[in-house]
Write a structure and sequence with these properties.
With 382 residues, the chain is α+β, with helices and mostly antiparallel strands. The chain has helices spanning 3-11, 15-43, 71-77, 110-116, 124-132, 141-147, 187-194, 213-223, 236-245, 250-278, 281-289, 294-326, 329-332, 344-371, 374-379, and strands spanning 54-59, 67-68, 81-86, 88-89, 93-94, 105-108, 136-140, 154-158, 166-174, 183-186, 199-200, 203-207, 231-235. It has 2 domains: 3-45 and 248-379, no CATH class; 49-245, no CATH class. The strands form 3 sheets. It has a 7-stranded mixed β-sheet with strand order 4-6-10-7-9-8-5. A 4-stranded antiparallel β-sheet has the order 3-12-1-13, sandwiched between helices. A two-stranded antiparallel ribbon has the order 2-11. The longest helix is centred in the last third of the chain and has 33 residues, at 294-326. The two termini are 22 Å apart. The relative contact order is 0.18.
């Protein structure tokens, strides 16, 4: 019998316990990876090349406070500004949805939106049709495929924020952006429904270059300082992360849960190894009597513990990679997440945690073996 077969035979002595232990490690690591993916998606919003140039301008007091439409003339004259468009979140309920609509609707200026969405691809004839019809809209391909919508279809929305309903015709389907889910329609159409209030939700500004973007942000803030409607200009990424911060400290919460998961996993692994070694005290005592040294006995215990943890990591981390690559996460989460990507760094984290647990779980049994003499070990009942 070889040393590897000896270790394998000991590990398979109680197959039910081994299966349950590996399953516990796998389930814990699967949960750990899921938490890390969720944290990454929430704190690192997806971005594209154009997002580095886009600047969101909102009311300094509150995002819920509108801005005067007359600010546009000032914004367009600021050095470094390439394009300006209203960017008003409508927040309606799509026909057929009862409580929540997974895609956002924004009122914009169609003539400027193409400059702002530099990465968006839309056929020229569809874009021209959208510009020509005030009651038309364009829709992201992801949403169009999810709801089975196509060019020419009518879509209705019930107002949840604004006291008006929308009845729109899809003029085009766009794709190529980091988030092909949103619907965009004419700001003038919304203004007419509301009685031309002369306000917008926010402004969407495109800087002339990446180098100019931070300077443009400062110039916009200074331009409206001490006015009746002071603004806060920030990059698109900072704007999105501002929403995440409203959910309290997500990073601390998910980090705390991850620590609890790892601690529970450590308890399971240590308990399994302690029971396995306790059952083999007599055998280990005999090996001592036959001349096996402590480091060799340690190697047997460590190999078994490490193998258990590694098997759980292969099942849990590998399972997470397979599941999240095949799962339609957007449909499952009702649009909360666009994608759930298992990165190599997350896989490395899972296997590192498993390796560390394998070592830590073996320390207790190792110390017990050191303290137990041959005579005491032979007295132990199996």
């Amino acid at each position: 019998m070889t040393l590897s077969s000896f270790i394998l035979k000991n590990a398979l002595r109680n197959r039910r316990r081994l299966a349950l232990s590996i399953s516990s490690v796998a389930a814990s690591l699967f949960l750990l990876i899921t938490l890390q993916i969720a944290l990454r998606e929430l704190t690192n919003p997806i971005s594209d090349e154009g997002s580095t140039l886009r600047i969101i301008v909102r009311n300094k007091v509150s995002l819920g406070q509108p801005l005067p439409a007359r600010q546009r003339q000032v914004l367009e004259k600021i050095p470094g500004v390439a394009a300006v468009s209203p960017f008003t979140f409508y927040g309606g309920l799509y026909k057929g949805d009862e409580k929540f609509t997974s895609f956002a609707q924004f009122a914009v200026d169609p003539l400027r939106t193409r400059e702002l969405l530099a990465d968006a691809r839309i056929p020229q004839e569809q874009y021209e049709a959208w510009v020509a019809s005030q009651t038309s809209c364009i829709l992201g391909r992801m949403t169009a495929e999810r709801y089975g919508l196509k060019v020419g279809d009518r879509v209705q929305f019930t107002g949840q924020i604004y006291p008006c309903d929308l009845d729109l015709t899809i003029a085009g389907i766009y794709q190529g952006t980091a988030d092909d889910r949103n619907l965009m329609f004419h700001q003038k159409y919304l203004d007419e429904l509301l009685g031309n209030p002369g306000t917008v939700g926010t402004w969407w500004v495109r800087a002339a270059s990446i180098a100019e973007a931070p300077l443009v942000t400062e110039r916009i803030n200074r331009a409206f300082a001490n006015s009746s409607a002071e603004v806060r200009a920030e990059s698109e990424r900072a704007f999105v992360l501002g929403f995440v911060s409203m959910w309290a400290n997500i990073k601390t919460l998910i980090g705390g849960i991850s620590v609890v998961v790892v601690f529970a996993l450590l308890l399971v692994t240590v308990s399994t190894m302690s029971m396995a070694i306790r059952e083999r005290f007599r055998e280990l005592a005999i090996l001592k009597a036959l001349g096996f040294r402590r480091r060799e006995l340690f190697a047997f215990i460590l190999a078994e513990s490490f193998g258990l943890a590694l098997a759980g990591a292969l099942l849990g981390a590998g399972g997470a990679w397979v599941v999240f690559h095949q799962l339609d996460i957007q449909k499952l989460t009702n649009g909360l997440f666009v994608m759930f990507e298992v990165t190599p760094r997350m896989m490395g984290l899972a296997f590192s945690v498993a390796a560390l647990l394998g070592v830590l779980a073996a320390l207790g049994p190792m110390l017990t073996v050191v303290r137990t003499s041959v005579v005491e070990g032979l007295k132990t009942l199996d």
